[in-house]
Structures are given as C-alpha cells and as structure tokens.
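Example record

Each entry pairs one chain with its bound ligand, NDP.
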Amino acid sequence: MAQKQDSTGDVTAAENRGFDPNALRAKYDAERDKRLRSDANEQYRELKGGLAHYMEDTYSESRIEREALHDEVEVAIIGGGFGGLLTGARLREAGVEDVRVIDATGDFGGTWYWNRYPGIACDIEAYIYLPLLEETGYMPTQKYATGAEIFEHCKRIARKYDLYRDTCFQTRVTELRWDEDAARWIISTDRGDCMRARFVCMALGVLNHPKLPGIPGIEDFEGHSFHTSRWDYAYTGGSSDGSLTGLRGKRVGIIGTGATSVQCVPHLAETAEHLYVFQRTPSSIDVKDNHPTDPAWVASLQPGWHQKRMDNFQILTQGGYQEEDLVNDNWTEIIRMLVANIQQSENPDLSPEALQQQIELADFGKMEQVRARVDEVVEDEATAEALKPYYRQFCKRPCIHNDYLPTFNRENVTLVDTKGKGVERITKRGVVVDGSEYELDCLIYASGFEVGTDYTRRGGYEVHGRNGQTLTDKWADGARTLHGMQSRGFPNCFFIMSIVQAGFAVNFTHGLGDTARHLAFIIKRALDEGVESIEVSEEAENAWVDRILAVAGTGSDFQQTCTPSYYNNEGKPNNASKQNSFFFGEPGEFMKILEDCRADGGMKDLEVCYSADEE
Ligand code: NDP
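Structure tokens for the complex follow.
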C-alpha cells in the first residue's frame, strides 16, 4: 500500500497530521471546478426594473418632508455608515464645523441600518470592530456584539460629534459634477437638491448594493419574498432577536448559505413549519466563543487601549509579529497555528516558498477541524458531508456560530444541496433543484451584495470630474487612485472605500479609521490655508497603481486557486479585480505610509491650487 506523504515527501509528518495535503489539494480543485461558471460575476441580477422593489427601505416609518436645498457646505459626506461617521468625527475633532451627511437611509448606520435580519451580529470582536470606544466612553456588552448594539453605537457616534445637525436622510444623490470656475462640487439629489460643496467625501460602503441570484423564473414566484438586507418584519413578525411568529405554519425557503444566512437560519427554523435551505457552497463554521464583557478587565484598561488592540489585531492578521495576541480569536488562530508549526520544526526553513507551504498546511489543519466539527454536530451523514467546506479558510468569509449546524438536526429543516450548481429554476410555487420542486410560502434571498461591478453603479450616481470626465470612464479598467482615497481629474473629492487600493484589513473599521484620519487632516489643512483645489499628481497616482499591481500578485495567485466568491470575482480574477484590490504591503506599512505623509504636511504628491485672494 502506498504510504501517505506530505507535499515535502515527509511520510511521518503526513501521518502525524492525520491528513494528506495532496489529496486535499485535489479535492479542493475538484470542488472549485464544479462551481466555476463562464458568466462569473455576470450571473447575478441587478435590482432594477421589475426587481427594483427589493431595494425599498422596509425600516423607515415615515417620509422626512423638507424643502429642496440650494446652499453650500464646506464638506459633504455621502454615506452615513462607519466610513461617513468616522470621517465626520475626525473632521469635527479637527475643528471643521460645516459638515453635511447625505444618505438614502433614514438614519446613520450604513450596513447596520440595512441589515437587521434575525440573529444579526458581527463576528469581528466588538472591542476592535466598534470604532471610537474611548472617545464615546462606550464599552460593548459582549465580545461579539449584535447588530442592534452596533446600530446604536453608530447613532451614539453621530450624537457625540453632532453629526445629526445638518443631515439629509432619505436622500439619494443622483449626480456629482465638478464646477471648474467655482471650484465647487454640485450635488444633485432625488429631493430636487442642488447643493454645492468645497469638498466631497464618498463613503458609500462596500457591501451596499444587494443583488439577486440569476436564477431563471425569479420574477415568477407568487409567494412572499425579500432580500435579507430589507427584512420584512411586517410579514415574519419578531425582531433581530428572533421570535418570527409570522412564519408559523409557513413553508420557508432561503437561497444562500453565506455569513448572513448562517446567522438567520436558526431563527427561521424556530418558527417556520418547514425550512428549506438551498445551498450552493457551504460556509466554514467555527465555534463562537462569546462572553459578556468582564468588568474587571474593563477596569484594568489604560488610556489608549483601544487603538493598541486594533493595531495588534491588524498587524497579526497581516502576518506580522506581536508579543501578545490580544484579541485571540478565529482570525488570529491560523497565525498561531503557523507559528507553532514553525517552532516545532528543528531547523525551520523560512524561505518564502517554505513559508507558503507552512501556511497551506496550517490552513488544511484548520479546515480539517472545521470539517470534523460538522461530523460531531450533524447527525445525518449525508447532510453532514454536504455541509463540509472544501476550500482554503480565507477563500470565503469564515463564520463562527454555535446554532447553525445543530439546526440541520431539526425535523422541520431540510438542506437542499445543489452540489455546487445552484438553484435550477424558480416557479410561481417555489424552487426547483435537480428536477424536484419545493413549494414555498416565503422565499428569502441571502444572496449577498454586488462586488466587482462599477463603483458608480453601486453608488447609484455618476461623478463628472474635470473636463466632464466621468468616474465610470476613468475607472473602466480598474480604479486609479492615490492611497485608495483620491483620483486625478476629481479634485477635492475623497473616497472612503478602504478595500480598494488601501491597506488590507480584516477589521474593516480599522481601514476606514485610517482613511478618515488621513483625509480629515488634508481637508482641515486645505481649509485653513484657503486652498481652492487639491488633486493628486499624475506621477503619484501612476506610481500607486503600479505598486498595487506589483503586490497584488501573491493575493491573486491565492485567489486563483479558491472556490468562486466575490473575493475572487466569482472565480475569474482579472486585471481590473487585481487593480481594485487591497494594498498588500508589509504588516503596518499602509498605516506608516499615511503617518509619514501627514508628518510631511499631508500635501506631498498633491497639486495644490490656492484661491486668488490668498495668493
Ligand atoms: P454572500 O455573497 O457571502 O453569500 C451569498 C450566498 O448566495 C452564497 O452562499 C452563494 O453561494 C449563494 N448563491 C448565489 N447564487 C446562487 C444560486 N444561483 N443558487 C444558490 N445559491 C446561490 O452574502 P452574505 O450576505 O451572506 O455575506 C456577504 C458578506 O457580508 C460576508 O462575506 C461578510 O463580509 C459580510 N457579513 C459579515 C458578517 C459578520 O459577522 N461580520 C455577518 C454577515 C455578513 P456560493 O457561495 O456558491 O456563491
């Protein structure tokens, strides 16, 4: 019988590990290949035309009535989620008073406004995910906060920094246009506004535009249906805590098994007469080690603890070294496993190739644990097998949940595994998979959000820069920015995107915080010095884009081997997706680049034009 060996040919190591890396690699490839589709990102349906109603705000109780505005502000922030809130907070701290936040929603919160589905929580530790904790004097109640607690914190930040003062909620921007003569942005909205702003900050979010799966017949369903980011509590009853009493006696289907579905499925199962979970690819589900906040720990914290904890996590999850792992969670675990593996070897080979191999082995080990947990929890063997994820841990968003897997032991729950193919068809009565129709009263789409489509399409408006150039045209082959924040041809305009050409961050609010601090610094200086316009120089922008492309290599090699998802442009990474990627530098490098830039006055690489009266 052939002996098992690992990829280095080491038989003993393979036996000690209990898995065969070559076999796993082959299995991962086969599972990925089942899911690759030629239409990749084109497979999804945009929510317009007959599907536009899926976008409607189900949370605003009444319409805010107001006159159209034809005034001017110093800074307009488009988007009131964490990006907009952090920008507003840092601007106010810097002493910039004339700030207006514009958002289509009825309140601050962004993603936490829209996503209120039952079970919603954040799986990044609350002590680092919630920004401005020391500034607001707030301490989360538990390690992993619920969506409701996070939404409240968004409003707390807005109150603390007096950002409610001049908001335009329930207002969709329809166009941004640069007025060269006046050196102002003209902001048009669906409320008839025509405002002017010296500076515009676009904090549109990332997962901000829901999408539907491109399943034939999707318009035909005659039962009730909605997207998870527009939860219809009027139909389901209950709240984000669950108790969905409106689902009693109902046959409910949910399409999608990503991070959102994992959190709401247990609540659906509690009250639905029968729940059908339609799965294309299983999520990886690890243990959620949640606990209430320990008052003794809180009392022990020293000023500055929050940024220190955020930075500690940021550096560790970028593969850097820290003496202590302060957060110590599932995100940093793989780094711990890796370090342990290296320490166990007598003469560790630390060449980049050997390190990649060690990372892969640590990843296999982690995912074997995740798969073993499915077997431990799920009683039916076939269901357990279908729920096992066969891909590298970070090919998809890893999930933590303690109730999701046990839900499949309930008699009123059926996992309908589509074996990587997806739902075949939707009819007026229900959902068809493999020729069988599942009749439903309610169909919920946990099908995620647009990623990889045009930035302006997701934002819902065009940006006309200098000489009428549109942002859509400028970024047609991928974003072109300096630090992911400014783009040539669009003076006085800042992007708070944080995933595009900005530093890689698992903790999204960390990236937003870095960006907000930096742009507030530049705007404050520009206002103090009577700057009319600032615009990134051509050389600086080109150099930054080249740098992004140069370091995107490792990330995109990894993505190429992954199962399709929005992380890898649905299995088809291309030049644009490479260019739209994070800045993958050394641990802490992006923060340092921005710090150095501010230490140098913040205007390096920018073309600055002063008002005539200031010259
Ligand atoms: P995702 O994009 O992750 O999931 C969409 C789901 O729909 C996938 O399971 C996908 O399958 C499935 N799907 C798409 N098309 C079809 C089809 N034709 N037939 C069957 N299934 C289909 O969206 P989510 O809303 O779950 O999550 C989006 C992101 O939001 C997460 O990645 C995460 O970043 C964030 N999030 C974070 C949370 C947190 O705790 N911090 C909680 C919830 C969300 P397939 O996988 O095969 O493509």
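The radius of gyration is 25 Å.
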